[in-house]
Amino acid sequence: MKTFIEQLINGLSLGSIYALIALGYTMVYGIMKLINFAHGDIYMVGAFTGFFASTYFHLGFIPSLLLAMLVSLILGVTIERVAYRPLRDKSKISILITAIGVSLLLENGGIILLSPQVRTYPQIFKQHMYSFFNGIITISNQQIVIFVVSIIMMVGLQIIIYKTKIGKAMRAVSTDADAAKLMGVNVDRTVSFTFAIGSALAAVAGVLVGIYYNSIDPLMGIMPGLKAFIAAVLGGIGIIPGAMVGGLLMGVIEALVSGYGSSLYRDGVSFAILIIILLIKPTGLFGKNVREKV
């Protein structure tokens, strides 16, 4: 039981990070029907921004986090304006290939500018362990920070989407962009805002990963980006609550596989989940089949 609870807590920590990245995927897909494969690399940029802010500028956790969000936000909006907006009316395959190209550009640009070596993340928090119920449950202060920050970000996103004017515009564009445009919604600004929010959330995940694993590198966004994409598909691509639940489920499943089996099987199980969910329920756990007139 103790091992199970420990792996469950580890899984929820990892799943919270996957959920933050998956939210960016699902938001962009909901608005543009685009899988932004560069999203994992924006997460990498956020991690490095937090690293430099805390290492060279000696900023604390909150300022480093805010700076990482700002840099990634600007990068995400720039990518949308430069790479995706000119192709918005073109074929989907063109914009998909562009997304892959942007991803490769960020990865190789990171290797050239930052070197491929692994960097040790500064220890922003001195690790403390807390035990509950006579040691049955053990949790670190780093895991508590990850839980708290992730919950704040997810709740904040829900407030933005359902309680603000720009959130209403996002939901309108997601439902029907042409009709929203006729009703006076600025589609370009709404899409840019979506990229900004998704990129900022990815930056938060990058900083949290640096704190949790104490190491980052320019290619760190590849596998978590794919895992977060699987989480978004698992929950229902384009559905925000689905991305949250999918991310948490992915983290828990991976932790249990590593704890009771081997970490070598972790990635294989993740991709097996993608294949199974596409075969059994392609719309995801929260998705519904929609009729289309042909």
UniProtKB/TrEMBL annotation:
Record keywords: Amino-acid transport, Cell inner membrane, Cell membrane, Membrane, Transmembrane, Transmembrane helix, Transport
Gene Ontology terms, MF aspect: L-isoleucine transmembrane transporter activity; L-leucine transmembrane transporter activity; L-phenylalanine transmembrane transporter activity; L-valine transmembrane transporter activity
Transmembrane segments: 12-30, 65-83, 95-115, 135-161, 191-213, 228-257, 269-287
Taxonomy, superkingdom: Bacteria
GO BP of this protein: D-alanine transmembrane transport; L-alanine transport; L-isoleucine import across plasma membrane
Subcellular location per the Swiss-Prot or TrEMBL entry: Cell membrane
Matching Pfam families: BPD_transp_2
GO cellular component, as recorded: plasma membrane
Chief location bin: membrane
Family assignment from sequence similarity: Belongs to the binding-protein-dependent transport system permease family. LivHM subfamily.
The protein's name: Inner-membrane translocator
Lineage of the species this protein comes from: Bacteria, Bacillati, Bacillota, Clostridia, Thermoanaerobacterales
